[in-house]
Write a structure and sequence with these properties.
The chain has 4 domains: 53 residues, no CATH class; 85 residues, Roll (Pdz3 Domain); 184 residues, 2-enoyl-CoA Hydratase, Chain A, domain 1 (Alpha-Beta Complex); 98 residues, no CATH class. It is built from 15 helices and 21 strands.
Amino acid sequence: MLLALLLLAAEPNELELAIRKFAQVYGLVEEQAASPIDPNPAIYEGAIPGMLRKLDPHTVFFTPGQFDQLKEMEKSTAKGFGTVVSVLPGRVLVLQTVAGTPSARAGIQPGDEILAVNGVRLDWLSMDQLIGLLGESRRREAKLDVRRQGNNRMMQFTMIPEELASPSVDRAYEIAPGIGYLRATSFEVPTGKLAKESIEKLGGANLKGLVLDLRGNPGGVLTSALEMSALFLPAGKRLMAIRGRAREAEETAVPKDWPRFDFPLAILVNEKSASASEIVAGAMQDYDRATVIGSATYGKGLVQSVFPLSQGTGMALTTAFYFTPSGRSIQRPLKEGLLEGQTPRWASLEEQTEFLTEKGRKVRGGGGIEPDVLVYPERATRLREVLDASGVLTQYATVAIGKAGKIEPSFTVSNGLLDDLQNYLSERNIRPGVGEWSADREWIRNRLHQEIFNQALGVEKGDEVEARRDPVILRALESLGAR
C-alpha cells in the first residue's frame, strides 16, 4: 500500500531512490530511537499523511477506525427535536417548535429559554462548546431545564430525537409584486426538483423576476446543481467541465426538453457559498443570465474520490477540478501546509486570470466566483450588538405577543410598542442615548417585528420580515427593477 502511495509523488526514475531513502530512515529510527516505535502510527499517522499534505488540503488518509467512521456517516440520517432556536453566548432561546415533532409533543413553547441540557448549565459554556453540546444532544435522549416567561418555576422536559425532514429549498415566497424569492440551503438529491416546483407555485413563467439565494450554501450533490442551472438556460448550453490528470475531460450541457424559465434572475452568494453553489452562480454569470450579488464565494471546486485500501484503510484523493463554461477553475488555490514560497502543482491549473462571458464581459478567474455587484451586510452598531447578544428582543417579543393576543400577518410594530420596549430595556439596564435610539429605531422596529413573527407565525414569516432590511436582497430587487 505504501508503495502505491509513493507512486503518486514520484516519477518512475525517482521511485527507487525515494523508497530507499524512506526505508533507510525508517530502519535507522527503528534500530536507534530511544524508545521503540509502533509501525502503524508511524506510517498511518506520520509518513502517509505527511506526504498527502503536499498535494492539497482536502486529500486525506483514513486509518481503519477513521474509515469505518466515514462509512457510518454516509449511512446516517439527520435527527433532531423539531426546535428552531436562537443561540447566544451562554443562552439558547426557543423561536419555534414544529408541529408533530418531539419538542412540540413535550410542550416546549416559543419564548422558552433552555438553561441546561442533560445537567450541563449553558451559561458556563463558550459559543463553540454550546454549539457542540446542542449537536451532541440530538443523538440521544435529552433532558432540558427550561425557564418560561411569567413562570418562576423551573420546568423540565425529556425528549428523544427523531428523523426529521429538512428540505434543501426551505424558503419560497413573493418578495415584491411579481418577484419571487427562493432559498436553497444545500444541494441534495431532490433540490433541482424542489426548485422547479417552488418556482411554478410562485407563478412560473409569469414571474417578472426571481431572487435565488445561495448564501451559506456549502454545496452537495452535483447533479442537483446542474438540474437547477438547466432551468434557466437553453438546451445545449455547457454547464460545467471536469478536468483531471488521470481522467478524461467531461462536459455537461443542458439536456433537450428540459423545463426553462426566461424571467430575469439575481443570484445571492457570500464567502460560505461553495462547490455546487459556485457551479450554479458561475454558469449563470458566464452566460450573462443572472446578476450575481454579494461577496466572493469560498472557492471549492474539486472532485474527491474515496479509495478503499488494504487493512481496512482508505483515502480521499483530489482527482479532478470543476470549471465554469468560460474555463474558470472554481477551486481557489490554498497554501495551507506548504513551505513559504512553495506552490502546489494543482494551484497552477489556471494561469489565466481574466475570462470573457458570452457577451464579452470580463470576469475574474483564480478561484471562487467574484460577484457582479459587491454588497456586504450592514455593520452592527453598539446598540444592535447589545440587543442581539442579550436576547432581550426575543424575550420582549414573548411579552408583546401575550399583550396583543393573536398576531395576524398584517401586524405591524407601532410607535407605542417601541416606547414600551424602551421601558422594558431600561428595567434591564439597557439605556441607549437619544441619538443611538433614533439612529437604530427603524432597525429595532424591524427586528422586533421579526422576533414576534418568529414566535407567533413561524420562522419562515420572520425571515420575510428580515428580508426587508437585508441590503443584499434590496440590491437584488433593484437589479430586477422592483425598487
